[in-house]
Amino acid sequence: MSEALFAPDGGWRVRIIDLSGASEDDVVEEVGGFPTLMLANAFCRAYVRDSIERCRVPGATDREVLAAWFAFGEDAEVAEAGEEGWRSANELDAFASAPGSEIERDWRSIDPRRTDASDGDEEEDD
């Protein structure tokens, strides 16, 4: 448990995994720089929630939503987190049975790659 208190050098890393098998090792990318395991876990949860929602079509059953996600979606895991890392398998059924809200799907707001450079546009004169 004490390992979860301290981030590895460079912060925690999240692996984005392509479930379609389109890439050779299934890892699409790694997102690094999470200062806490809690943030890395929250990112994974929101990322997978969003991926499931992108695979949901109107009228689909829970089983059909999961089948589409396993065929076309993306999973996420915290590298080197062990048992302390969030696991999609623990929540897939709940995610498939009820659509997620915008807040539950908002992985972008906690993405360490996000820059605030675009926020300066608000100061433009009309």
Q: How would you describe the overall organization of this protein?
A:
This protein has 4 helices and 3 strands. It has 126 residues and is α+β, with helices and mostly antiparallel strands. The protein has one domain. Helix 2 crosses helix 3. The radius of gyration is 16 Å and the shape is globular. The C terminus is likely disordered.
Oligomer: single chain
Sum up the overall morphology in one term.
globular
> What is the β-strand count?
3
Gap from first CA to last CA: 53 Å
What is the element layout, followed by pairings?
Elements: H1 2-5, E1 12-18, E2 27-34, H2 37-55, H3 62-72, E3 74-78, H4 92-97
Antiparallel strand pairs: 1-2, 1-3
Summarize the structure.
The protein has four helices and three strands. With 126 residues, the protein is α+β, with helices and mostly antiparallel strands.
Notable characteristics:
alpha+beta, single chain, 16% strand
